[in-house]
Every structure is written in structure tokens, then in C-alpha cells.
Amino acid sequence: MTDQKIPHTTPRQSATFSQDVNSDIRRAAATGIYDIRGGGAKRRVPNFDDLLFMGASISRYPLEGYREKCETSVTIGGLHASNPIELDIPITIAGMSFGSLSGPAKEALGRGASMAGTSTTTGDGGMTQEERGHSTKLVYQYLPSRYGMNPDDLRRADAIEVVVGQGAKPGGGGMLLGQKISDRVAEMRNLPKGIDQRSACRHPDWTGPDDLEIKILELREITGWKVPIYVKVAGARPYYDITLAIKAGADAIVLDGMQGGTAATQDVFIEHVGQPTLAIIRPAVQALQDLGMHRKVQLILSGGIRSGADVAKAMALGADAVSIGTAAMIAIGDNDPKWEAEYNKLGTTAGAYDDWHEGQDPAGITTQDPELMARLDPIEGGRRLRNYLKVMTLEAQTIARACGKNHLHNLEPEDLVALTMEAAAMAQVPLSGTDWYPGKPGTGF
Amino acid sequence: MQTFDLGEKGLRAMHEELHAQTQSTNETAWEIVNPKGSHAIAVGLDAPIEVTVRGSTGYYCGGMNKQATINIDGSAGPGTGENMMSGKIIIEGDASQYLGATAHGGLIVVKGNAASRCGISMKGVDIVVHGNVGHMSAFMGQSGNLVVCGDAGEALGDSCYEARFFVRGEVKSLGADCEKKEMRPEHIELLKGLLEEAGCDARPEDFTRYGSARQLYNFDIDNAGAY
């Protein structure tokens, strides 16, 4: 016998039972309830980072960056509405409710969007004066809960967005937990203070595309056919859903992929239901093209848009505009490292804070707590959002000029290649270095 | 009385005329003829006028109404009076599903029966049905009163909040978190007023009150089976 030690293997973590997974199991075992959080899918899915623009050389020639114009304006809703929305930039602010967001946050979004020449959108809680007052172009969401819905606000809106679904939770409703129901939120929603406010997953007075057509008729008659009517759908079955929305008479479609955020939903729903933004755009554009409606019914893509590169890629694949929610929140201060000590107290860290439903947001954005709300200066927040939107626009223009385009709308799939097989298949653009993508007609795959 | 031929002039022309009426209008009495079951008749009105539709209507008649009184001289399609804010809708015949969905105020009277989901997500409206109501009526009802002089179908008041339900006949079943409540004098008084306004001679004492048991107001995993 020797006293030679048997060497240990390096401790090895399981890929299946990772630390993240184990913490989920422990949390579930301790609480007996699923995890609810805000935000969109955190898992990595094929996305716009998997695409590249080729730029110009001999076969294409570019526009001079500082001399030749690259237009960015977009008109939304001209098909049926007498007053379509004219935007200076094709980046809009997505629907986020007063209730889930604080009053100063909604004001900051309105201010920033207005300064940048774009629109902002109400949410599941009605229209607030802060928002209407500071938004030159305001889209009024028409949601299943109809919290705060009334004909006066409907007529004060610049467009109406009938929300069928959102990318974070296709087929799901919502719940605003009692701790965020202040007197004002309760009054707007016509419910007692402090109770959970459920938002239904289906509209109460219509089911299916034939009914939707009649609902759109009603909204048009109430508003005198003046304002555009958008239909927002989650990235579930985009070809069919968009075909049906067009048939129902939508002026514009908002299409939201699974990276799109929500105020509060089950983590399992956010991570496991829906499709990546990159995967839904081509079927959507195909539906528009098959009906001869591409560029007539505008397609607004959302779900994880972060930069001018994302904007340019979405538009090259056929979108008319994009919409941002999470990125706009970050721009005005959400998850800012300056609040790191307070994030730590909440058991998290800057960048990972997603308990938006609990109302304790150190940045004063996803809260109704007066002291926390006061931390967000809506004027400064608005300025930051304006800056961010301007940068995104400049970035998109930079790319478009490099591709020889004098309008962002002139970007096209032929300007793109993919870095991965998945992205090539989803975006239907060639794998970099080849002229092929999976599913390309005539290739036998 | 202003008479408008809907079949001849169309929906848009009708709403242009009705929406042009102001608080001080002298043209307070309107008659819509030839409705032929059209959808979205007399929606978004906002003036103290009385509109009588001579015939049955399609979806959403009187949708988002404010102030106006709308008489439907026939039966009414789905979503009649949806999101109504104030005013009155009186339906001489039967009403289809989603009557008064999400309506915030005013009074809706049905002389016949109302189908399923009557008063779904009601937010303050009063609805009086002379006959019966279908299943899932007042689902997620937030506030207001639903009065049923006949019977109620399955799952009355499912997941309701603070809306009150008064039923004279039988209730096939109550929905999640809906329970029978005591009829106190203030409820008798309230019901008396509603029945009178709805032209119904039923005795308030013959009704039973139902409402929320308030057990699902804050999420509790032990109640998961009820959701």
C-alpha cells in the first residue's frame, strides 16, 4: 500500500443542470410559484448580429457620407386614413403602460420621441396627460383589458393600435401586481387599489379575423376615418397572422419578436413561446408581397432592436420602420450601473434587473413609488432618448450610404449576408462566402 | 324627427350627421331606417340626442356611446354598447354576445334575452335584461350592475371584481370567485331604481345578489386551480 493520493477530476458543472437552472429549481421549490419577471427573452437566439452588410466596391458604389443625402422619413397608415402619421425617422417608441412605467418615464419617452420626430405609444392603462402633452405623435393602444379606454382619448390619438399579442408572450395576457397599483393607476383602470390587475389575453368583444374587420370598421367610424389603425401581433405565425390582419383592414402591422419586452410575465412564457425577431420578418414581408400590400400597409418590426445596424437590417429585410421599448428604457436610465449598490440590495446587478413588476426600480422607471419616481428627471430622460434615437438614425444612414442607398427604405436583402446557417435560413440571405441559403428555391434544400 | 335612410346613404354619411350634433343641438330626435343588420350603427355619439333604429342591428351598435339614447327596434348583434361611457341603449328584442363589453357607464336595457358574455369586463355600466342571460356573463366584471329578470347561464361572474349581479331566476352555476351575497336594504333600493328606469315591473325582493368573494384579488399559488 502506498499513501499516494488519488487525483480528483476538475469539478465539472452540468450543461443540463447549470447554475442558472439549479437556481430556478431551488426558487420553485422554495416558493411554489413560477418566476415572473419583466423584459424579453434572455436566451441567445439567432438575431441581427448574425447578419452583415456587404457594403459597396466596384459592382455597387456608395454615397458620399457627408455630402449626399440619405433620407429617413416614413409615412405610416396612408392606405385608409386621411391623416397618416409622418415620421422623420423610422424608429418609434413601443407601447408601454402607465402603471407598469412611472409618470416621469412616460413623459421622458414622449419628450424624447417628439424631439427626434417620431411617435410614442400608450399601453395597457390608458392615456395620461403627461404622455399626450409631451408626444407630438401618440399611438393609442386598444387592448383586451380596455383599461382607461374612452372615445375622447381615442379621438385625441394620432393612430390606434389594436393589440392582438406581443412578442414576449404570444397568446398571453398580463398581470400588474397589487404593489404597483397606486390611487392614480387604480382610478384609471376602474379597480380597487392594491389588488392584482389582470389583463385578458383575448379581446372581450371580438374573436378572429372576420370580427376584427368589423371592429376596425367601428373604430374608423368613431374617429371619422382620420387616423391610421395598426394591428400589433406577436411573432407566432407571421405569414398567416399578417395576411389576416391585412384582410381585416389594418393600415399598418406591428410585428413583435420574442426578444421584445413585457412588464411582467412568467419567465417560462418569455423564454419558450414565440419566435426570434429575425425569423419572423421574411414570412411577414412575403404575406404583404403576396397581397400586393408591401409598402402600402407598413410593417413595423420590434423585439430586441438596439442600434442603427439593427434598424438598417430590419429595413433591408423589408420593414418600413422599427419600434423600441427595452432599448428606450435603457436610454432613459433603466439598469444603469450608477444604481449598482441598490440593485445588489435587491439581489441582482445592473443589466440583469428584471423584477419590473415589483415596483422597486432604483432608476424610478418601472415603479409607482413617489420617492423612486422622483429620481428620474423627465427632461433629462427625454434628452437622452433623443440623443439615442439620433445616433441610431445616423448609424443606419451610415450603413445605407455605404450600400449606395439614398433612403433607408432602399436597403434590400441583396445588401446582406449571414454569418450562420440559421440566420441565413431565417433571413433568406446567403451564407457569407456563398450564394446559397437553406431553403433557397431551386437548390434542392 | 330627422329620418336617415341608412340603406340609401350609408354608414359614413350617417355618422357625419350624428357626430355633427353638439350639446345645444335642436335636432334631438333621429330615426335610422333600413338598418338591415349593418354593423357599427350609431357609434361614438356624444350629444344629448335620441336615435331610434328601425330594425335589427349588427355588431357594435352604440359602441362608445356618450350621452345619447339609442333605441333598437329589433334585435342587436354582438358587442352592442361596447365601452359605452354614458347614455342609454334600449333593445326591444334580444341581444347577442358581449353586450355592454367593458362599458363604463350609462344604462343598457334588453327587453328580450341576452346571449353569452353579457357585461364582460363591465366597468361601471348598468345592464338590465328582462329575460335570461347566457354563459360567462359579467366575466371579469369590474364595476356596475347586471340585473337579470330571468335565469343566468353557467359561470356567472367568473373572476369578477366589484361588479354586482342581481338574478331573479336560477343561476346554472357561479364562476370562479363569484358568490351569493346578502341583499341589504341599499341593494333593494338600488335595484328598485334600476328596474324602474328599465321599465320592468319585477319586485326587487325576488332577486338574489351575487358578487366577488375577493379570494383571487392577489395571486396565491394555493388558488391556482381556480384560475
| Helix-strand makeup class of chain A | alpha/beta
Low-pLDDT runs of 5+ residues of chain B are none
> What helical percentage do the residues of chain B reach?
10-25%
Spatial order of the strands in the main sheet of chain B?
1-2-3-4-5-6-7-8-9-11-10
Adjacency order of strands in the biggest sheet of chain A: 5-15-14-12-11-8-7-6
| Helix percentage of chain A | 25-40%
Tally of helical runs of chain B: 3
The oligomeric state is: heterodimer
**Distance between termini of chain B?**
51 Å
Q: What is the C-alpha radius of gyration of chain A, as a whole number of Å?
A: 23 Å
How big a fraction of the residues of chain B is strand?
Answer: 15-25%
Average of pLDDT of chain A: 94
Low-confidence stretches of chain A: none
Q: If helices are DSSP runs of H or I spanning 4 or more residues, what is the number of helices of chain A?
A: 15
Largest sheet of chain A: 8 strands, parallel
Q: Specify which chain pair forms the largest interface.
A: A-B, 33 and 41 residues
Give the CA-CA distance, first to last residue of chain A.
64 Å
From the helix content, strand content and strand pairing of chain B, which structural class follows? alpha/beta
Topology of helices and strands:
The complex is a heterodimer of chains A (445) and B (227).
Chain A: H1 19-31, E1 36-37, E2 51-53, E3 74-76, E4 85-87, E5 91-93, H2 103-116, E6 120-121, H3 129-134, E7 138-142, H4 151-156, E8 159-163, E9 174-176, H5 183-189, E10 197-199, H6 208-222, E11 229-234, H7 238-247, E12 252-256, E13 265-266, H8 267-272, H9 277-290, E14 298-302, H10 308-316, E15 321-324, H11 326-332, H12 340-345, H13 370-373, H14 378-402, E16 416-418, H15 421-427
Parallel strand pairs in A: 5-15, 6-7, 7-8, 8-11, 11-12, 12-14, 14-15
Antiparallel strand pairs in A: 1-13, 2-16, 3-4, 9-10
Chain B: E1 2-5, H1 6-9, H2 11-19, E2 29-33, E3 50-53, E4 69-72, E5 88-91, E6 107-110, E7 123-129, E8 143-148, E9 164-167, E10 178-181, H3 185-197, E11 208-212
Parallel strand pairs in B: 1-2, 2-3, 3-4, 4-5, 5-6, 6-7, 7-8, 8-9
Antiparallel strand pairs in B: 9-11, 10-11
